[in-house]
Amino acid sequence: MSQPEAKLVPFPKASASHTAGPSKPRDPRLDVFRGLALVMIFINHVPGNPYEDYTNRNFGFSDAAEAFFMLSGMAAGLAYSGRFMQAQRGTGSLWAAIQPMWSRAWTLYMTQILLTAWAIAIFSAGALWLGVPEMITKINLTRVFGNTAEALVGIPTLGHQLGYVNILPAYSVLLITAPIAILVGLRSPALMMALSVAFWFLTGLYRWNIPAFPNPGGWFFNPLAWQVLFVAGLMTGLSKRQGKQFIPYKPLLFWGAICFLLFVLAWMKIPPLGKGMNQFMLMAGRAGAPFHLVAHDKTFVGLPRMLHVMALTYVLAHAGIVLRLCAQNWTKPLALMGRQGLLVFSTGTLMSLTGQVILNATDHTEWLTWTLPLVGVALMILIAWVAEAISLKPKKPQGLIAPAPEPAFDTLGTAAQTTPRA
């Protein structure tokens, strides 16, 4: 998954009120959960492997995609809000705050085009050389080979997105519009969240979406709906950057969220309960309830999915044991992947597509279903390790003047104001 790379500027130190206090150890949770989400997305994108039975989508309504948008919002709030605060105080320009976000959105767009080209190449190679011609009929490739002219218009305009390669366009759109959310959030995070929820509701009610081309319909990850998760994360990161909590710990809310998560688990795992609840939701829909309030729809982020990921995020954010677990040595590979999010996400995407071709070419040979995901995760860790080693390599001084100290890094591998790299 992608992470913002914009450098953050420390708060001004012109007065005591702006002086930074002692550095604190970096909170490892965001790194670890980003890395975990990347692993689960990779595993889920290799259908037929035994590990997919243990990813989070089997224990609740939401899956790793919802976690990705929440965490990406938190990353953006932490990484980019500092310059907006400076612009608000008159010590920086608004364009200096906006430009890194739009630059990052462009990087995501170019990554999307590159991944799409490689997806076509990987599945075409399977059809040409591995005896699986059906691969060019999967993941929305039929249009590419059946109506190439239209597909070649749709791909660069993001109207035609391939399966398993369709999450970055929505994130790009959200980064482009995020400056508005940050500016509103600096005045009132609660107001921004209320506006986001209202827009999500209207989007589902009227089925708003960005149109697809040449296929009918709209984007699978509809940014008009998925913005509600991104904004929730964005306001969380923004508040944390200000030294606050967007939604502080409240015992009633915390235990209520736990009860809801347990109820959802029972809904999914106890057939009589699940059947009864599904029937209730169906009847509510027939009675006139808006579909996105009673359905598990992914494109419009059905209410059950949204509530589940928000409850899960709240519990994980306020459970002390989670912080202690994320600080353990065995979580370091996950944290490493989380810090190199875009590179690891891209690697995982290509590995998952390659794995799909290999498994189809070998009739899902059992030992390969167990081995390929492990090899893919190992490569993701290796790529992250190499990238981090390169980024930490000391630079040689230029001439007689030593280079300025590099900014510290926050939990996403982006420059932060006071936190040292562990």
TrEMBL record:
Q: Name the InterPro entries for this protein.
A: UCP028704_OpgC
Superkingdom to which the source organism belongs:
Bacteria
Tell me where the transmembrane regions lie. 67-85, 106-132, 162-183, 190-208, 220-239, 251-270, 306-327, 339-361, 367-387
Key words, A-Z: Membrane, Transmembrane, Transmembrane helix
Q: What segment(s) does the record annotate as region Disordered?
A: 1-27
Protein's recorded name: Putative OpgC protein
Q: Which organism is it from?
A: Donghicola eburneus
